[in-house]
Amino acid sequence: MTSALETTDLGKRYGRDWGLRGCSLRVPVGSVAALVGPNGAGKSTLLHLAVGLLKPDEGEVRVFGKAPGDSRELLEQVGFVAQDTPLYPDFTVAELVKLGSKLNRTWDDDLAVDRLGKLDIPLDRKAGRLSGGQRAQVALVLAIAKRPRLLLLDEPVAALDPLARREFMQALMGIVADQGTTVLHSSHLLGDVERTCDWLVVVRKGSAQVVGSVDELLAEHRTLIGPRTREGEYSGVGTVLRESHTDKQTTLLVRTGGPIHHPAWNVSDVTLEDLVLAYLADPNAAALPGPVSLPQRGVGA
Amino acid sequence: MIEFLLDGHSREATYMQLIRQVKQALRVGMLEPGDQLPKVREVAESLAINPNTVLKAYRQLEIEGLVEGRVGVGTFVRRSLSRPTLVTHGALRRDLEAWLDRVFAAGLDEEEVVALVETTLRAVFQEDRFRQGREGIA
Amino acid sequence: MIWLTWRQHRKQMLAALIGLAVLLAVLIPTGLKMHHAFTDMGTERCLNGLGDGSLVGAGKVSECQSVVDRFQRAYGDYGRAALLLIFVPLLAGLFWGAPLVAREIESGTHRLVWTQGVTRARWGAVKIAAITVAALLFAIGYAALVSWWMGPLNRTGTSRLEFLSFDVQGIAPIGYTLFAVALGIFAGTVTRKVMPAMAMTLVGFVVLRIPLAVLGRPNFQGAKDLKYPVVSDTAPNIGNGNWVISDGVYDRAGSLLAGDTQAVCWPPPDSPDADGCYGAGAYNLVSYQPGDRFWPFQYLETGVYVLLAAGLLYLAIRRLQRQMT
């Protein structure tokens, strides 16, 4: 599988603090990837680096094998919907579409007008008078009508009400089905992520903590429930990510190497939400593909 | 044509839910050989789920020989799961009703009945699986 | 890109056109009136009659001076009002230059426009070129208009080489305008916010303009000296637009009797000791920049500001490409 996006030990500094450091990850072509992590973990920084709005201070970022920069070709291949979906408030929707058509050689005007028509967004409405959901939809249309190979979305639905959020995700999934676009979108909403994403990137404190296919990650992780067992005395269960105990019972969330045969454990599947939360709660746990090289230096030190 | 519904609270994987719903429809005769399944794009958009998930479900159904994909056209049902035994449902249901009368007469309330059925089901199925597994080895 | 530039800046263009129209509406009638009066009152004829010499007959000077004073009483206020025009180039810097980049970043729309299929360098180049050319055209129109309008005032009031007067006419306003716009754009790439960019533009403009005008301009070229006796039948020519840097009255031995003034005792009194004649041998010493240095000085100062503008624009584009990240 080739990568749409790949970073190697990527670092970006803001003044003395590192917004991102030692961040290595990849997003395969054709995947719908979720970028998950707490606020300030570096999600926006990563996306901005990928689209060339920021330049790395360390390491490198590659989009379809090339470093994003002031390259027209690459800019045309990447669609970006920024956080809070900025639009020129005094432009009408039609003018925003015209902006897209003037600034992108690969622009598909029919696609843009068609989608806006389906969404019942009036073309003569000023962007400043659109609802949040409509703004997000217009921003999405602007990003996809240039027919990008990679679509980067920075918390596009964070500010939307549930209905607008659903409509946005519906539109996004329709686009993925139509165009086979690779998507990387950052989100807090693990429910959306679970339904829409087949690739997961968890970032925490500026570096990637989990990178991998959702199916594989789910297959590798299990919840084990068994009789009260003392800490550290579980054998053959793989890496323990989270444990909780009552006086009778021990519950573990583990990353397994294979099937668990020990009869004491009642084994059940995990949801993506369990998995993400377990990793975010444990700063030392990581699930990275291949030879895992965790950064030796501390973040922000 | 059927319409998929997702249970957001279910722990069951999305593609499994899709498979189950197709099979359910096949079982009750809502889908018959030759019928078309909803297009991947439509399912992805209406449920706001990853199209790959839909593809995966359809591929699984294809492997099981229930449906076949025709390039550029869509996915069509190949065989039905409705069995003549379903005709006997009426008789089975009457048996169950008679059994339930006995249970309530014995003083169990509704929750206890459900718990009894669930634990029994689980036990029987586990035994079943165990037996099948051994047969497989033999 | 051109369409986008026009779409985003058409309001600014319209505002500038309205401003120019207002200026035309005010300056054309008043200018015509002033030019007519300048001819009709005999001011122009009298001043032209003085010729080119540094010292001319005191009688003629005195005669012209009274005509000039009459014109000044009628139109001197116009000249003072015209000094307001000194702020016009700054306005271009504040309202065209400063928001160009800063507003995009402040409102976050840079994330929209810089991720389209146009490189940031091209975006910057087209926008900056468009705004700079527009500013240039407006500045040329404005400078030509004011230069014409100031014509009579230049010859009757202060020399057009003097502070403020020099600054609103000729080609210097074009240089100031380009500089202000470039400074505004550059400031926007530094501050990334509109108000601070405007403040930086204002401060930068004032900090450079005032010292260069006050300290630099009088020394662009060595001043000339004119020495003439107090008691004399000739007086300095008031028609050649010289800019007096310093003057004073000295006694025979060369010590200063009165600073910042010139004295002419005419018609020559019986005795050099008469009132206000400072005694025998007293003379005036005037240090001045000749009026015909106006254009060389204009070229020099305009050149300096145009070069500064070019440097700032270069830095602004570089920052857009490399540092705005």
Automatic annotation (TrEMBL), chain A:
Boundaries of every ABC transporter domain copy: 5-230
Molecular function GO terms recorded: ATP binding; ATP hydrolysis activity
InterPro entries given in the database record: AAA+_ATPase, ABC_transporter-like_ATP-bd, ABC_Transporter_VariousFunc, P-loop_NTPase
Coiled-coil ranges (or none): none
Matches recorded under SMART domains: AAA
One Pfam family this sequence matches: ABC_tran
Domain of life from the UniProt record: Bacteria
Keyword entries, A-Z: ATP-binding, Nucleotide-binding, Transport
Listed PROSITE patterns: ABC_TRANSPORTER_2 (PS50893)
Protein name per UniProt: ABC transporter ATP-binding protein
Native source organism of the sequence: Actinomadura darangshiensis
TrEMBL record, chain B:
Positions of the HTH gntR-type domain: 12-80
Key words, A-Z: DNA-binding, Transcription, Transcription regulation
InterPro entries in the cross-refs: Tscrpt_reg_HTH_GntR, WH-like_DNA-bd_sf, WH_DNA-bd_sf
Superkingdom of the source species: Bacteria
GO molecular function: DNA binding; DNA-binding transcription factor activity
Key word DNA-binding present: yes
Keyword Ribonucleoprotein tagged: no
PANTHER family with a match to the protein in the record: GNTR-FAMILY TRANSCRIPTIONAL REGULATOR, HTH-TYPE TRANSCRIPTIONAL REPRESSOR YTRA
Protein name: GntR family transcriptional regulator
Protein's organism: Actinomadura darangshiensis
UniProtKB/TrEMBL annotation, chain C:
A GO cellular component annotation in the UniProt record: plasma membrane
Residue ranges of coiled coil: none
Record's keyword terms, sorted: Membrane, Transmembrane, Transmembrane helix
Organism per entry: Actinomadura darangshiensis
Protein name: Transporter
One GO MF term attached to the UniProt entry: ABC-type transporter activity
Domain of life: Bacteria
Membrane spanning stretches: 12-32, 81-102, 123-150, 170-190, 197-216, 297-317
The UniProt record lists the keyword Membrane: yes
